[in-house]
Prior knowledge:
By secondary structure, this protein is α/β, with parallel strands linked by helices. The protein is 51% helix and 17% strand. The chain has a domain at 41-113: P-loop containing nucleotide triphosphate hydrolases (Rossmann fold, 3-Layer(aba) Sandwich), CATH 3.40.50.
Amino acid sequence: MNEAEISTRRAHSGLTVWFTGLSSTGKTTLSDALSAQLRRLGFRVEQLDGDIIRRHLSLGLGYDRKDREENLRRIGYVAEMLSRHQVVVLVSAISPYCAIRDEMRRKCGLFVEVYVDAPLEVCE
């Protein structure tokens, strides 16, 4: 890759890729693989993992609908801030409610939702 190609890639607009699905479907594994590939291509990438966010930004939140939505709003806020600064943000989070994913889609600008589909037996 020459300097012009690297400069063009670095100047891209931000993007949020939101991996959703049941627990243990491979959201983080896919995010890790995509992150590595994008970094090799010269993109700035940040990963926001739902489990890690819960231990830091959402400590104390439970798992009822209200707390789950608040956790996702916090993740979405960080994703929006980063993508505004030309970062590709990879979110791996169980996001069971369509309404909150739609809300994040509206806030994050360029947004791709990836539903990681795996049978419950595989997840268990």
